[in-house]
Amino acid sequence: MRTALRMRLVAPSATLGMAAKAADLRRQGKAILDLSAGEPDFNTPQHIKDAAKKAIDDNFTRYTPVPGIPTLREAVTGYYKKIYGVPVPKEAVIATNGGKQALYNLFLAVLNPGDEVLVPAPYWVSYPDMIRLAGGEPVAVPSSPENGFLVTVEDLDRAATPATRAMVLNSPSNPTGAHYTAEQLDAIMAWAVSRGIYIVSDEIYDRLVYEPAKPASMAGCFAMYPDNVAVVGGLAKSFAMTGWRMGYCIAHPDVIRAMSTLQSQSTSNICSIVQKAAIAALTGPLDCVEEMRQAFARRRDLCLAIIKTWDKAFCPVPAGAFYLFPSLSAYYNEAVPNSTALSEALLTEAGIATVPGVAFGEDRCVRLSYATSDETLEKALTQMGDFLKKLG
Ligand code: PLP
């Protein structure tokens, strides 16, 4: 069967690909230390699981309104009020199958063919493909390890053209953990408003920010400029709920209606049971989120202490998410000339699963996830240091 031309616009996710390769080797009996995971290793908190069980027992198992039941949309608005003090009307909220579907439908809802979308690099693997599938043209805006992988208004302004319609901001970032302060977000917002550029703010890691950095959201900007920004979030990372598939988008009600129309003709409402679980998560106690955040903060420091001993590596201190993105190009040699070769060699020769930086638009780096046990981290990073030393 010959597939459609549009399939040339999309490649399988490199992060999921590496996880599958590691799982294959494990099935063959090899011991793999996995630093490739994009998900918390914690279990979903008990009160959230209980709400899902109750939803089943209560037979809350039928179709619901496409954008989510009103109490779920209100739970999202209540959460933003509680966390950020920002009022968001429930008509500005849609529940989606993970943050991924929110982003996918959002691009489809706002982009026209040929619209350019600025994507600060390194970027999460799915943005360019999603933008292309929606008819847009991703334009990478480079940043560097030396400036903490942050882009400035000047960087964005240099990359913008009359065809620029939107930009993606991902803070904290996958893969770098870079995090924009509230002041930096305000400056980017002011620039975007002045240029008529729509901001897609992917804040899926917004609760995973480590001192001295403070959480910051574009939700406040949305309250001021509802025509200029959409906020995408979800429960996967902060509440350890990757498999449940609960994301959301906060945007102008016209955009939310368009996304709802798309969803009505594709996947309909998200799982009814998950909606009840999500309400429990968003309206319930948040100490479980705080406990996981503290564990991630401790692991980040543990990893950084080991990476500091790799004499040719450069790793900016990430303020959020659960990734490190060290620049390792000083170790590249003839046999291992790039991030793909380094990740392959680490997997097959040292039994360590990582993700090559090239998948995120930065071939000097490799992504390491610290969403795993302290023991695995210590062992993997110590072995990785020994492996790098052998490269030169
Ligand atoms: N955005 C970023 C930056 C991510 O890293 C991910 C997941 O890895 C997502 C969005 C999608 O999250 P979800 O599992 O809610 O679809």
UniProtKB/TrEMBL annotation:
Per the record, the GO terms for biological process are:
amino acid metabolic process
GO molecular function list:
pyridoxal phosphate binding; transaminase activity
Q: Which cofactor does it need?
A: pyridoxal 5'-phosphate
Q: What range(s) does the Aminotransferase class I/classII large domain occupy?
A: 32-382
Which EC class, in a word? Answer: transferase
Query: Which EC number(s) does UniProt give?
Result: 2.6.1.-
Residue stretches in coiled coil: none
* A Pfam short name: Aminotran_1_2
Record PROSITE patterns = AA_TRANSFER_CLASS_1
Database matches in CDD domains: AAT_like (cd00609)
Q: Which InterPro entries match?
A: Aminotransferase_I/II_large (IPR004839), AspAT/PAT-like (IPR050596), NHTrfase_class1_PyrdxlP-BS (IPR004838), PyrdxlP-dep_Trfase (IPR015424), PyrdxlP-dep_Trfase_major (IPR015421), PyrdxlP-dep_Trfase_small (IPR015422)
Query: Which keywords, in A-to-Z order, does the entry hold?
Result: Aminotransferase, Pyridoxal phosphate, Transferase
Would you identify the family this protein belongs to, as annotated?
A: Belongs to the class-I pyridoxal-phosphate-dependent aminotransferase family.
Name used for this protein in its record: Aminotransferase
| Source organism per UniProt | Solidesulfovibrio carbinolicus
